[in-house]
Amino acid sequence: MAFFLETLLGGLMAGMLYSLVALGFVLIFKASGVFNFAQGAMVLFAALAMARFSEWMPLWLDINSLLLSNLIAFVMAAVVMFAVAWAIERLVLRHLVNQEGATLLMATLGITYFMEGLGQSIFGSDIYKIDIGMPKEPIFVLSSLFEGGVLVNKEDVIAAAIAAALVAALSVFFQKTSTGRALRAVADDHQAAQSIGIPLNRIWVIVWCVAGVVALVAGMIWGSKLGVQFSLTTVALRALPVVILGGLTSVPGAIIGGLIIGVGEKLSEVYLGPFVGGGIEIWFAYVLALVFLLFRPQGLYGEKIIDRV
């Protein structure tokens, strides 16, 4: 039982991190109605900025405190992501208002490769480390209930808590604020939103800024766990099944989808892997996403699209 709980908790914590990356997809889709293939590049770019600023900060300001150095680096990286969001809206999206979804999709592909190249030019292409002070050593919990206790990684617990707090804040933002309601209106119909006075350009800047902060937090956590390297862009690919499962228009769906994918990957690898030779964790999420595409393409919480002829 203790081993099952260890696997279950590991899956839940991994699922929260998947949800965090998937939120970037949901945010952009809710505001523009297009799937943002640049989300992985945004995570990488934000992580590179955070890692390099945290390295340069002690040299620039003679700071000996790790916490203060990371805090200043985080703020500077957030400013960089705001600038990136503004530039994307000003130079790309503003000229594509009311265009077909496929046009916007191709624009995000172009943004992906541009950001990858720009990140390499500015910050370098080495593997960098982000040290945000999260403890790496595991601990044993529930020792009174199970012999030997349940092994839990402190870093995973803290990362999951950060992701959960951000997810909760964004859920409140979308459901309770006027800006969040405006974002949903823009996603439903660009022209109708403009006709009632919603400034489309400003809304897109806001949502790309929020998505940039989400990418920064995701890049900070994943960079702390795996190191900042260009393969970090593939983290976004791990989040694709999450948005398919939860629904492209649902923030709660991104959360539930991430938890289902995280737990499913861990449990299937541990309990089914020995019978099929292992490797289930790699493809489990994509097979589950394929099943949903066949039988419920809008996902668990997505809005069902009805075309009237």
Word description of this protein:
By secondary structure, the chain is an all-alpha fold. It contains twelve helices and two strands; from the N terminus they run H-H-H-H-E-E-H-H-H-H-H-H-H-H. It has helices spanning 2-32, 39-61, 66-91, 101-123, 154-176, 178-188, 190-195, 200-226, 235-246, 251-271, 273-276, 280-295, and strands at 138-141, 150-153. Strands 1-2 form a two-stranded antiparallel ribbon. A hairpin with an 8-residue loop joins strand 1 (138-141) and strand 2 (150-153). Helix 2 (39-61) packs parallel to helix 4 (101-123), helix 5 crosses helix 6 and helix 5 (154-176) runs antiparallel to helix 8 (200-226). It is globular. The N and C termini lie far apart (55 Å). The model has no long low-confidence stretch (mean pLDDT 79).
Give the SSE layout.
Elements: H1 2-32, H2 39-61, H3 66-91, H4 101-123, E1 138-141, E2 150-153, H5 154-176, H6 178-188, H7 190-195, H8 200-226, H9 235-246, H10 251-271, H11 273-276, H12 280-295
Mean pLDDT: 79
Order of helices and strands: HHHHEEHHHHHHHH
Number of helices: 12
Helix content: over 70%
Span between termini: 55 Å
Widest β-sheet, arrangement of strands: 1-2
- The general outline is globular
> Spans with pLDDT under 50 lasting ≥5 residues?
none
Structural class: mainly alpha
Largest sheet: 2 strands, antiparallel
Radius of gyration: 20 Å
Beta content: under 5%
Number of strands: 2
